[in-house]
Structure formats: structure tokens, C-alpha cells
Amino acid sequence: MSDRYRRGLDVAEQLANDKLAHFVKSGVAEIAPDFARMVIEFAFGDLYSRESLDLRSREMIAIAALAASGHAGPQLRVHVESASSVGIEKAEVVEILMQVALYSGFPAALNALADCHDLLTDDNCLTRACG
Amino acid sequence: MSDRYRRGLDVAEQLANDKLAHFVKSGVAEIAPDFARMVIEFAFGDLYSRESLDLRSREMIAIAALAASGHAGPQLRVHVESASSVGIEKAEVVEILMQVALYSGFPAALNALADCHDLLTDDNCLTRACG
Amino acid sequence: MSDRYRRGLDVAEQLANDKLAHFVKSGVAEIAPDFARMVIEFAFGDLYSRESLDLRSREMIAIAALAASGHAGPQLRVHVESASSVGIEKAEVVEILMQVALYSGFPAALNALADCHDLLTDDNCLTRACG
Amino acid sequence: MSDRYRRGLDVAEQLANDKLAHFVKSGVAEIAPDFARMVIEFAFGDLYSRESLDLRSREMIAIAALAASGHAGPQLRVHVESASSVGIEKAEVVEILMQVALYSGFPAALNALADCHDLLTDDNCLTRACG
Amino acid sequence: MSDRYRRGLDVAEQLANDKLAHFVKSGVAEIAPDFARMVIEFAFGDLYSRESLDLRSREMIAIAALAASGHAGPQLRVHVESASSVGIEKAEVVEILMQVALYSGFPAALNALADCHDLLTDDNCLTRACG
Amino acid sequence: MSDRYRRGLDVAEQLANDKLAHFVKSGVAEIAPDFARMVIEFAFGDLYSRESLDLRSREMIAIAALAASGHAGPQLRVHVESASSVGIEKAEVVEILMQVALYSGFPAALNALADCHDLLTDDNCLTRACG
Predict the structure, then answer these.
(1) Which of A81, B36, D93, F56, by CA, is between 20 and 30 Å from E100?
(2) Interval B7-34: pLDDT, tens
């Protein structure tokens, strides 16, 4: 296990994201194991672990950029799930997605809200366990 | 002048952005005056002025989403110029653009860096006057 | 209820679109009620209600732009459903989607046709009730 | 000269567009002559010449779809220049570009307006000769 | 049947692609028969049949461009299915999709891999019959 | 200098691309030196150096994906300049760009041809020195 990979897993742990952990040994990993490793090494090990931005800012940026692209629903869900682990509230996620309408149009914003509907309905669900 | 427009100008003032002020009576305003007004009213008066996110977060989101789209160089420059007014340092802008490479590819990130090259070269220029 | 909202609902009524009416109190409205209101106020109240273009032209533009974006299937369906209310025939919708292939490629056009397949199969279904 | 090519040139003539005529023997034609021919044959000869939509509708669709894509400034200019030949007024072109902001965001609309600024400044220039 | 159509079917046969054959008389053909014909005539009859590139190169290009666009899952599947008929191995398809991450970002590459997951799981399935 | 960086430079050398070499110490490197290094390490050191695809195939994929995105003119030029070093002829580059029209529309293909016009005019220029 490379240092970059270890650093990537450290970041993933701080994001407390089961989806991310699951990703390492799932679908993509099955057909493209080197690529799954590279995502952890490069995205999380190389970029996310840099200190110039805190993880809260990085997750806001991820949510904004993914919603803006219009075709990244699954990745958007992963980062919306991580949001609460770094102190981003649901109301803030909704606000980010609304702002994206300015830059990428209403369909991108509306589809992003729909893609994450279940993750954003219960006001408390992102900051504590949902019963 | 509508309340929404006034609220929009208030936000623009906090962003201390001459480009933005210029925009109100320039190019676009000349051929589409109602649209220039709507941008101020809707983008800044309706959305930016909401309290769920502070302006620092909103400008990070703007920079991320605009860079991610790949075709919004002029708008990206406006928001990179506003960044320092809300406490975002140049090194942070660079870091946001680097992170966008993950979601929209290297060309989008490289072109965003090139589009804002002059705004990002001098390390101090965004946080205090450049001589 | 603001004047802008009322004007937006007036337009929605002319589009005789249940989907649109439904939208006001549904999915998005549940997690982002202010955004659902803004869509009605801004999209329909501010822009669609302007007299420079008739609603038939506006719906053609909506269908063309949504299909061109490649990621707006749900919104495309809403506007294809409204098309008949403003005198656009099914054959014309198909023709618009075919033309979009020129600007955004065949996949965007083919996926738009597939997204609206059920709305476009019966020749009469858009201009009178389908039994 | 194929029938499809001749039909394409007929359409181009109705659009009274020097840019289009110029295109046939210019830049692209020099390095990709077969492609320049295919554009005339397929875009104008096969699609535009179909009777299901009149040329006025087709040009509205072209302007909407090209502005929506965000990266088609040169092609947008060609079609904005053709607009007056098929009875579309400048104020209508501006209105189409404003509406595109809904679907593709403000930057796409603002850049489209800027790309065509000189074509849209004089109120009369599209409907009669500019002195 | 035009010469262009016949040439298009010849290419389709070399791609040994049932999906493609199916496409001719299916969904899209039902609501837009002229468009289904044009796809065969223009895409396969006019472009693919040109000798400047062999079909193996053309399918690599198709897979790269479709994955890069981020919204062409169904078309990507058609071309990944054709890949083996022109000598492209599964490992090469995976490698193309990985490389696309550089130009269009990780989500486009990850979604392309997910869209074609079943076509890429069994190592032998593209080069000989799967039992 | 990391192994990954060294491997990246090796690939760059095979592409015999001055633009690429220039990139290492230029514009982007000035404001984002870590990012310039990461591009070499990740794009060329990690991905391009993998043996599953030869460099000729990789450059075809790069050209197709970059043209398809519609907003990567500068990067497209870099790879079109590298094309001849790996045995891709100008006529083949033109053919790739023509094929991209199918997937991303005519404007993307036409703009790609225009972006690389000077690199594609002289028939011999890519395969031997131009006087």
C-alpha cells in the first residue's frame, strides 16, 4: 500500500463515508482495480489531503462542481453523504444546489436536488442518526 | 428601483467588485437592459443575499461551479476578483481550481488557471493593493 | 403571494401542464420550498410572461435548449407535455429534436427522443385526450 | 453536385447569409473539404429543407440550442446573422438568449449576448440595411 | 434503399452489432423513422465508411468521445458491444475509459465504467461467446 | 524527482512535444507549480505509461475526447502537435475531428478544426519538417 493510498484512506475516514469505503472494493474496482486505486491515491491522497483548504471547503466545492456538471448524480450523492461529517448542514447543501442554478441552469439544480432528495428530506439526518 | 435590485447592489458592494458595478451599465446592459437588471435582482438580490451561506462560501461555490462548466471564463474572472473581498486568498483560489480537475477534467482546470493567470500571479495582490 | 408568482401561475395555466402544477407542491418544494417558488417567479413570472415572444416560440426554444444540454430529460418531458397547449404538434417536436442533433450530436437527440417516447408515439395524443 | 448539396445551397440562399456562403470555400473547406460539403448536404440539404418546420422556427431553434451549448460562439453568430432573413427581429434574438439562461445558466446567456453584441446593438440593423 | 443506407448497413454488419440492427426498427424508428434512416446513412454510410481510418480506430474514437460527453450511456454501450468485432479487447476499453478521466473528469469515467459494467466483467466475453 | 514524474517525462519525450516541455515551466507552473507537476505525474506518469494501449491509440483518444468536450482548444492543439510523433497523419486527425461531429455536434467539430487550422493545412507538416 503506497503512502498516497494510505493518505487517501485517511481522508476517506474523516469523511466517514461508507459509500467511499464500499467503492474501494466494488463495481468499478472489479473491472478496473487500478483505476479504483488511482482515485483514492490521486483524488484523496494527492489533492484532498493538501492543507490549503479544509475538508469543509473541499466538500462544498465538490458539491458545487458536481452539480454544475449535470451528469454526476452518483458522485454528488457520495459527497452529499459526506457533507455532515465535515460540518455542512442539509440547509447549506440545499443552498449550494440552488446557487448552482445561476451558473448551470435550473435543470442541473433541480436534478441535483432530486438525485439527493432522500438525503435531504429529514432535517436532522445528516447531523445525527436517523431512526 | 426594486427592493430586490437594491439588495442585489448591496451584495455587489460587499464584493467590492468594479467589474460587477461596470456590468450594470455596460455591454450586456446596452442590448439587454432588462436582463442586466434581472441578473442583479435574481442572482444577487434573491440568491446571494440569503443568509444560509456566508459570502465567502458563496464565492468558493461560484468559482468551483464556473470553472467546472468549462465555458465561463469571463464570469470566473469576475468572481476571482471578488474573492479577496470576502477573505479568500489567492492560494485558495488556485486550490479550488486544482480540485475542479477531479470533477471536470484537467483542461477545465488548466483553462481556468490560464483565464485568471494575471489575477493569481502576485501572491499579495488579492489581499492588499498591488503597486 | 407576490405579483411575480401570480404572473408565473398564469403562464403555467396557459401551458395547461399538470406536471408544472404538481411541481409547485412536490419533491423539490419539500426540500427547497423557496427554490420552487423562485422557479415559478423567475422562470415563468419574469421571463416567460414577457411579450417579446409568444408562448409557442418559448416552448420551441425550451425544447431545443433542454435537448441540447443532454442532461435535462425530466425538464424536457415537462415542456414536451406543454407543447400541444400552445399549438406545437408532435411531428414538430420530433423535428426540433432531430435538428438538435446538428448542434449537440446524435446521442443528445436520440436520448431526447427516447426520454419522450411515450409522449410522442400516438399522433393525436398531444392535441386531444388519449383513450 | 449532388441533389442534397443543391438543396442545401437553396436553403443557404434563403438565409441570405454571406458567412454561410463564405464557409463553403474557406477555412474548414481548405483542410476538410469533404466535411464542408457534408455540412451543406446534411445540415441544410437533409434537415433544414424538411417541411415540418418553417425556416423562422428552425433559426430560433438553432439560436437556442447553440447558445445553450456554451461553446458555439462562431456558429451562433452565423445564425444570428441569418435571423433577419427569416423574419426574426433583434429584440426576439435577445429574448431567446435571455430565456436560455433558465436552461444553461447565466454565463451561457451572457456570453452569447457578448458574442453577438455588434450584431444586436442597432435596433434596426437586422430588419433593414444599416447605413 | 439509398446507396448511402446500404453502405451504412454494410458497416453495421462488420460491427456485428445486434443493438445497431435492432435500432433500425425500434423505439426511435417508431416516432422518427426518417431520423433512424439518417443515422444509418450519415453516421455509418457517409462517415464510418470512409477509408482514412479503420473501424478499430473509429470504435476507439467513438468510445472516447461518448464517454467524454458524460450523457451518452446508451450509445456508449452500443459501441462497447461492437468493440470486440473490430479487435478491441475489454482491457483496452477499460483503459480508454480510464484515460477519459483526464479530459472530462472522474465522474464521466466512473459512470462510463458503471454503464458498461456487465459488458466488461467477464474477461473473455468480448472476444468469444459467453456461456 | 519522483519515479512517477520521471516516467511522465519519458512519455512526454516520446511525444516529442515542445509545447508539453514548455508547459512544465510556464504559465500554469508559475501560479500552480504543484499542479503542473501532478499533470506530468498523473496524466503521463500514471496513465499514459501503462502498457494496455500504445501511444498512437492514446493520442487518438486524447484528440477525440478533447474535441468532444467543446472547451479544450489549447489542450487539443498540444495533442494534435504530438500526433505525428506517434505515427498519426494529418488526414487521420481531420478524420477523427469529423467523426466527433456525430457525438458532440457540428460546432464542436468545426471549432476543433478551426483551433488546429494552421497545424493541419500543409499535408506534410506533421510527418516531416516544414520549411
Answers:
(1) A81
(2) 998 998 888 777 766 666 577 889 999 9
Count Cβ atoms below 10 Å from residue E124 Cβ, excluding itself. Answer: 12
Name chain F contacts of D31, Cβ cutoff 8 Å. Answer: 94, 113, 117, 120-121
Q: How far is C24 from chain E (nearest CA, A)?
A: 28
| C35 shares its domain with C59 | no
Predicted pLDDT at A25: 59
**Residue in chain A nearest D105 by alpha carbon:** A105
Choose one of F48, F67, F83: the last residue of a domain.
Answer: F48
Q: pLDDT digit string (tens) for A60-81? A: 999 999 999 999 999 999 999 9
- C-alpha E49/C-alpha E13 separation (Å) is 12
Could you tell me if F15 and F55 are in contact, meaning their C-beta atoms sit under 8 angstroms apart? yes
Residues B38, B73, single domain; the answer is no
The ipTM value here is 0.90
Cell numbers given for F36: 503542473
Q: Is residue F59 located within the same domain as residue F43?
A: no
Q: Got the DSSP string for C6-69? A: HHHHHHHHHTT-HHHHHHHTSHHHHH-HHHHHHIIIIIIIIIIT-TTS-HHHHHHHHHHHHHHH
Measure C126 CA to nearest chain B CA, in Å: 33
Q: Which of B126, B26, B41 is nearest to B83 (CA)?
A: B126
> Which residues from F are below 8 Å from B when comparing CB atoms?
27-28, 30-32, 34-35, 38-39, 43, 66, 69-72, 74-75
**DSSP labels, B29-74:** HHH-HHHHHHIIIIIIIIIIT-TTS-HHHHHHHHHHHHHHHSS-HH
What confidence tens digit (pLDDT) does each residue in D96-116 have? 999 999 999 999 999 999 999
Sign of CA dihedral E62, E67, E71, E77: positive
The region, left, alpha or beta by phi > 0 then psi within -120 to 50, assigned to residue D32 is beta
Model confidence at E22: pLDDT above 80:
no
Alpha-carbon span C76 to C97, nearest angstrom:
11
Of all residues in chain A, the percent with pLDDT exceeding 90 is 76
In the predicted structure, residue C57 carries a pLDDT above the cut 90:
yes
Comparing alpha-carbon positions, the chain F residue that sits nearest to A37 is: F46
Which residue range forms the structural domain that includes residue E88?
Answer: 55-127
CA-to-CA dists, residue C35 to A84, A99, B8, B45, angstroms: 22, 10, 17, 14
pTM: 0.93
pLDDT digits (tens, 9 = 90+) for E27-36: 788 999 999 9
Q: What is the pLDDT of residues E47-75, one digit of tens each?
A: 999 999 999 999 999 999 999 999 999 99
Report the number of distinct structural domains present in chain D: 2
> In angstroms, rounded to a whole number, what is the distance separating the alpha carbons of residues B46 and B77?
22
Q: Do E108 and A71 touch (CB under 8 A)?
A: yes
Confidence of residue C15 (pLDDT cuts 50, 70, 90): confident
Residue type at position D26 = S
- CB atoms under 10 Å from CB of C18, counted, come to 12
Interhelix angle F106-115/C90-104, rounded to 10 degrees, is 20
Cα-based distances in Å from E119 to A75, E83, E110:
22, 11, 14
Indicate if F90 and F62 belong to the same structural domain. yes
Q: How confident is the model at residue F127 (pLDDT cuts 50, 70, 90)?
A: very low
Per-residue pLDDT at E129: 45
Write the DSSP symbol of residue F54. Answer: -
User: CB–CB of E61/F99 below 8 Å?
Assistant: yes
Which pLDDT belongs to residue F32?
A: 95
Same domain, B16 and B33: yes
Identify the contact set of chain A against chain C, taking CB-CB distances under 8 A: 70-71, 94, 97-98, 101, 105-111, 113-114, 117, 120-121
In chain B, which residues have pLDDT < 50?
124-125, 127-131
Shared domain for D24 and D81, answered yes or no, is no
Contact A70 C72 (CB under 8 A): yes
